[in-house]
Design goal:
heterotrimer; A mainly alpha (322); B mainly alpha (365); C alpha/beta (493); A: 322 residues; ABC transporter involved in vitamin B12 uptake, BtuC; B: 365 residues; mainly alpha; 0% strand
């Protein structure tokens, strides 16, 4: 049975599934820690997925594609910031609007430029390279360790390494930098931040910009690394799952990323477990496994697992009280 | 949704119209960039969806579903709740409908079967909305996140149930078996042959009835008064003796039931079987309708017809103009939610300024 | 409306200066100008003999002025150190300044005996400790003038004593302190000079040593004008409300009400006098069913009020209304009306189930008739039942609320600040309404910060301070000095 489960490929798949959520979750982390609800992650992921695939194809250069994705996602984030912070509009509605609008627009543009049923053409060679560690071939024969070295630590796309490298960086930024201190203050008690001379508006705008940039990598990863093309609605709920990992991780970078890895694991298992006979239970359909992350999130939200506390000032536009 | 200091006629008519026009303007710009003429596209759309009687019939058919999902979101909104879960509630409502059909459709005549199926859809839709409502009322869990999760859970659950239990032997199509003809909603073309072979059915009349009941309940009953008070000012509602947690839960139950009833038109009016992903975004259209129609029965009706026209006209338009596929209207839907929802007061300062300049009678503050 | 007019006074360096007055006297506004939150329309501010411009709190901080607010400006899940560093981090990397800041904080704590651990998280600290953190922040920013706004409102007796010890240390170090308070004992205990404000003006300034609490009380409260409203002779009936041993604690275990005992009879107006924020609002909330008490008993018409074994007060006010308790809330816009509803809709607010037919639908004809009658009887202007209530003036809004509550024919009427934000002409008519109710045998509990109003309406006066009853007297024992003392926290002997 264990051979059927292909544990090895589950581990590798998990590592390769996690970055989509990780980038989006870290993006949401910045936005929400500053006090702005970001329900629009899904739309930003889709928009940057399309932009990066299209530009990468047209220029045959994946890095230009990534740059395009960054620009598009950042623009959407600034729009959200304008509506939420300056116009003091409903942040939830704004996010939903962006998701729906981008779902439609990306398909229409893909169809317009490429006439392939709303997808972009295959990138072929114009994809980001995998990093193969030196000596991988030499150690390939060694059981377990060779596999670990060559396929778990090494052998992934450069964006995967970027995702994991960002984690300690984001953690440091949030907890050990001036920007992070001010960010967290704006999310917990903007009046205190204001009284201390911090510009709440400027901090939140910056946070949304950072979120836009981080989120774009999620879309670029989906399109350029994982698939090699853009397909309609390819984000498939990643934006919402990223929000779920924030709840699960109590808005703390390391725990949130653990949540992303856990959800990546479920996605990997779901594919492998189809058609596998488990003792006692028999075959578990993939669709039930697919449900697990969402059910876990609801349980956390109900306060039944550890207490999950959102930043106190989240979702409320800041109005100076003096 | 904030209130403004504008006089009622401005906030009820001028603002929504300006918002809608803004959305359409952006859409027109995009259509222009796609190489098509917005005015021409608009005329094709109007012809197909309104002027042509068969097209109009399709428009109203789609509108029937949207009226129910629009009502679903509106009821919750009146209580101050943003129910994003209408999609999942409609989906699970379809399950309730199906279970009623599968067990009863060979035993009951139409006049008993149809109401049973409707009750099944409403009950299941309400049940799917109950837990998010309960969690919000008693534990403060944010209803937006819980309903989004429940949408996904519904999708996975229904996938599992349909594939494992409902597909008849030998069929490839992920759908249940076809229901007996006793379960078919009578089509309106039986009385109005000019409508042609279109699925517009009695659900449309039920939708109108639902709008009337909604209007009466929300604006003429004590319960509706309490609902609106809860949404406008929960502190004062508490002072007035209203039980906020009970109001939240009941509002969500009714919201879920309405979303569940939306499945009646799609299934019993058209396909006559339960298929994978049959809601096809109707729940999210309901959000756009509730925002655009400002949760008012007339507004909901007009917005539903508008969206029905966009779908029907959009279909014909996509056939004539391949550069404007149907997904364009999903984009327009997003724009409408943006302008009518998140930016709903964008024009308010400008209107106020104009009123002041023209010296319109200032109402006492 | 002028918050401050012609305010001139001098604060001696290296002294503790008290600023005393009732609510709305203008003391907080004055200090807010000093701290840069508001800009004065005219006048000068001189520091050490030099004229200064203070436009923002940044300017004030730069000039060495620090303010400790009533509502702390602290981020609860930050440490003390983080809160101090916020805004003055000194560089992108926090680590660079952390050690130095921590050392300096410890040194300040040592010197002034503040007893705060810089690495403690704010949410774990007691309210008194949190206040010391605010003080710490100001000292860290080199404040030489420290303004404290009602600092002892949230402190226990011990914590107050500790605070005062700290303030004396500051004085010894040459710092200047302005203490805003309404508690006369504190003025006598710790200040060197005191300035009294009333209605936006300075009405007295003196050295503390040469004055007395009585004199201060007089200056603070002024001499209320005799009211001319007619009153029927006082003929109280049965006991309607009996409050025994009522206690209230909030979730931080702060004592909001302690040992409240009193009785209220039919045909009697009892006024709860006192500076607002001393428990009166909470008491009204409990008696109207909007909030549950922590302990104690309340009897209404001989039966215990249905607080029961509930976990919260959700829906409870309906039961209280059904028993015959009406409530005119202190904050009408937040609690008492729906400003987007029409005037007519607001006339049934709280009583919506009494005007329906058997299907639960409103009987609009009856509601309209009743509304028209109420608008006329209570002289609401404009008398259009369909306009949004929010468009009415404050006084007319209040008339609608009172009309609604009175017409429910209650046995007990709870009234909070009935003339707050109401124009002079309407004040008299509201007072007349309340007296009429009293003459008809309704028991009325009135909360008011205006002594003139208390004098005009009350048969009996209960004074509250710090969540406790500090004194009770009949109307014919009315004495501004005595009441002022009780309001200032002096218990009757």
């Amino acid at each position: 049975m264990f051979e059927d489960l292909h544990l090895a490929s589950i581990v590798v798949s998990t590592i390769r599934n996690a970055p989509v959520l990780m980038f989006a979750a870290m993006a949401g982390l910045f936005a929400e820690r500053s006090g702005v609800v970001d329900i629009g992650l899904e739309g930003k992921i889709l928009a940057s997925a399309f932009a990066s695939a299209a530009v990468a194809y047209s220029t045959q250069n994946p890095w230009y594609g990534v740059a395009a994705g960054i620009l598009v996602s950042a623009a959407l984030a600034l729009l959200q910031a304008y509506v939420s912070i300056t116009q003091k509009g409903n942040q939830l509605v704004c996010g939903i609007a962006i998701n729906i609008a981008m779902s439609g627009l990306t398909f229409v543009l893909a169809q317009f430029f490429y006439q392939q049923g709303g997808r972009t053409p295959d990138l072929g060679q114009a994809r980001l390279f995998d990093i193969v560690l030196p000596g991988t071939e030499a150690v390939d024969g060694i059981p377990v360790l060779g596999w670990l070295y060559g396929h778990v630590i090494g052998g992934h796309s450069v964006l995967v390494y970027l995702a994991f490298a960002l984690v300690p960086l984001v953690h440091w930024m949030i907890y050990h930098s001036r920007f992070g201190l001010r960010l967290r203050a704006c999310g917990e008690n903007p009046h205190a931040a204001d009284a201390a001379g911090v510009s709440v508006e400027r901090t939140r705008y910056t946070a949304m910009l950072v979120a836009g940039v981080l989120c774009s990598f999620s879309g670029a990863y989906l399109a350029i690394v994982q698939s090699g093309f853009f397909l309609r609605d390819m984000s498939a709920g990643a934006g919402f799952l990223a929000l779920a990992t924030l709840v699960f991780g109590n808005w703390r970078p390391v725990y949130t990323v653990l949540g992303c890895i856990m959800f990546g694991f479920f996605a990997a298992v779901q594919i492998q477990i189809e058609g596998v006979d488990l003792p006692l239970i028999g075959r578990i359909p993939g669709s039930l496994i697919q449900m697990v992350p969402y059910v876990v999130t609801v349980i956390v939200l109900a306060g039944l697992m550890a207490k999950s506390v959102a930043p106190k000032a989240i979702g409320t536009p800041f109005i100076k009280s003096r | 949704m904030k209130t403004t200091e504008l006089p009622r006629w401005a906030s009820a008519f001028v603002l929504p119209v300006l918002n809608l026009l803004s959305a359409l303007l952006v859409a027109a710009l995009v259509i222009h960039l796609l190489g098509e003429n917005p005015a021409e596209s608009l005329s094709i759309l109007i012809n197909s969806a309104i002027i042509n009687p068969e097209g109009l019939s399709y428009t109203l058919f789609y509108a029937s579903t949207f009226i129910f999902t629009g009502l679903s979101v509106s009821v919750a909104m009146k209580a101050g709740l943003f129910n994003i879960g209408s999609e999942g509630q409609m989906y699970i409502g379809g399950l309730g409908l199906t279970l009623a059909m599968l067990s009863l459709d060979h035993a009951l005549p139409a006049w008993a079967l149809i109401p049973c199926a409707m009750i099944g859809s409403a009950l299941f839709g309400a049940a799917w909305a109950w837990l998010p409502g309960y969690l919000q009322a008693r534990r403060g869990s944010h209803i937006v996140v819980t309903t989004i999760m429940f949408n996904f859970i519904a999708a996975s659950l229904m996938n599992f149930l349909i594939v494992k239990y409902l597909i008849p032997e030998g069929q490839q199509n992920p759908a249940s078996r076809v229901f007996a003809t006793a379960g078919e909603m009578p089509r309106l073309n039986e009385w109005f042959p000019v409508l042609g072979d279109t699925p517009l059915n009695v659900s449309f009349l039920l939708a109108i009835a639902a709008l009337v009941v909604y209007g009466v309940m929300v604006w003429r009953s004590s319960w509706g008064y309490q609902l609106r008070a809860t949404g406008l000012n929960p502190h004062a509602a508490h002072y007035a003796g209203i039980s906020i947690s009970r109001m939240i839960i009941v509002a969500m139950l009714i919201s879920g039931a309405l979303a569940g009833l939306a499945s009646v038109n799609s299934i019993m009016g058209s396909t006559h079987y339960l298929s994978l992903n049959f809601p096809a975004g109707a729940g999210f259209v309901g959000i756009a309708i509730a925002l655009m129609g400002r949760q008012h029965p007339v507004g909901i009706f007009l917005s539903s017809v508008l969206f029905g026209a966009l779908i029907q006209g959009g279909f014909d338009l996509s056939l004539e103009k391949p550069n404007i596929p149907q997904e364009t209207f999903i984009f327009i839907q997003g724009l409408i939610i943006l302008f009518c929802g998140a930016m709903e007061n964008f024009y308010a300062p400008a209107i106020l300024k104009m009123l002041n300049l023209t010296g319109a009678p200032q109402q006492k503050g | 409306m002028q918050a401050n007019a012609d305010v001139s006074f001098a604060i001696a360096k290296g002294s503790i200066h008290g600023l005393v007055g009732e609510n709305g006297a203008g003391k907080s506004t004055l200090m807010s100008i000093l701290y840069g939150y508001y800009n004065a329309n005219s006048g000068h501010i001189l520091l050490d003999g030099q004229e200064r411009q203070i436009r923002t709190s940044h300017d004030a901080i730069g000039l060495g002025i620090g303010m400790v607010h009533q509502h702390f400006m602290l981020v609860e899940n930050f440490t003390v150190l983080d809160n101090v560093m916020l805004g003055t981090e000194g560089g992108f990397k926090l680590a660079a300044q952390r050690a130095a800041t921590e050392a300096k904080l410890r040194e300040i704590c040592e010197r002034y005996r503040l007893n705060v651990d810089p690495l403690a998280t704010i949410s774990e600290l007691s309210v008194g400790a949190q206040q010391r953190v605010e003080i710490l922040k100001q000292i860290y920013r080199s404040a030489n003038i420290l303004i404290l706004d009602e600092p002892t409102a949230v402190l226990t007796a011990q914590e107050t004593a500790s605070l005062f010890a700290i303030l004396r240390l500051f004085k010894e170090q040459g710092k200047t302190i302005v203490l805003i308070t309404h508690k006369l004992q504190e003025i006598m205990d710790i200040t060197d000079q005191v300035t009294v404000m009333r209605a936006g003006r300075v009405v007295g300034a003196t050295g503390t040593a040469s004055t007395s609490k009585e004199e201060l009380a007089n200056m603070m409260v002024g001499r209320p004008i005799q009211s001319e409203l007619p009153r029927a002779p006082f003929k109280p009936g049965q006991a309607v409300l009996k409050v025994a041993g009522l206690q209230l604690e909030d979730k931080n275990k702060v004592r909001l009400l302690a040992d409240i005992d009193f009785t209220l009879r039919a045909g009697e107006i009892v006024a709860l006098a006192g500076v607002s924020g001393n428990g009166q609002s909470e008491l009204l909330e409990i008696l109207s069913g909007m909030r549950l008490p922590s302990a104690g008993k309340v009897e209404f018409l001989g039966r215990a009020l249905p607080f029961g074994k509930r976990r919260d007060a959700d829906g409870l006010p309906a039961a209280f209304r059904a028993l015959g308790i009406a409530h005119v809330p202190e904050d009408r816009l937040r609690d008492g009306v729906i400003k987007d509803f029409s005037v007519m809709q607001n006339t049934v607010f709280g009583y919506q189930d009494r005007v329906t037919n058997r299907w639960g639908l409103f009987d609009f004809k009856a509601i309209a008739a009743r509304c028209a009658h109420l608008l006329k009887a209570f002289d609401v202007r404009p008398s259009d039942p369909d306009i949004r209530l929010g468009l009415l003036s404050g006084g007319n809004q209040q008339k609608v609320v009172i009309a609604r509550e009175v017409s429910s024919k209650p046995k007990l009427m709870l009234v909070g600040q009935p003339t707050r934000g109401v124009d002079i002409g309407t004040i008299e008519s509201i007072h007349a309404q309340l007296l009429k109710l009293r003459d008809e045998g309704v028991a009325i509990l009135l909360v008011s910060v205006e002594l003139e109003e208390v004098r005009a309406l009350a048969d009996r006066i209960i004074v509250m301070s710090g969540g406790r009853v500090t004194g009770e007297l009949n109307i014919d024992e009315f004495d501004t000095t005595r009441i002022g003392l009780m309001m200032g926290g002096m218990h009757k002997k």
